[in-house]
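quick one before i forget lol
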Amino acid sequence: MVEKFCNFILAKMRKRMPDITDEKAEIILYGLELILGEIPKLFLIFGLGFILGIGWYMVFTYIAILPYRTMSGGFHLHTHLGCILASSLFYYGNILISKFLVLDNLQKYILIALSLIFGLLMVSMYAPADTENIPIISKKERKTKKILSYITLILTLVAAAIIQDRILSNILIIGTIFQTLSITRLAYKLTNNKYGYEEYAKQAEN
């Protein structure tokens, strides 16, 4: 349903703007599917969260991790069902772990330090982690997003160190770990994704 609607919109756009190439059309279509697919997915996941009594934790998790997630990127699953399941695991898994994880201050700061070291290393290697459908080719854009990935990662973990509420602090820590894992090469292999800029470079060589 979403795919058909997005194709309909794209067809209307190409009729009004005939200069849109097939390559640009693919990128536009992918973007439309992401946006229009994201809205019902969020309603479903957040709605269930409020029914289960963790709705506000869901909202906090989404808003708090969004900056780091937006800048660092990550894999995308190829079906709407897979995307819903992965997002549910990200949010519900994070909150579930955060509610039951009890750390003293020393353990908390050690986990934050380890998360920071791991995050900085993975960001240096993989961020911004793009996809084949929406590759980030511009060196300037890649450099900017990498820098912002460092900044948002550090700020999120600093907030985790400062916040006294155990669950909220845990959500920030676990959320950064989950997000960092989503940009790794292992995560891309497991989800059958490829880094867009690498694939673009291979095509340019050929």
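fyi The CA atoms of residues 51 and 180 lie 29 Å apart.
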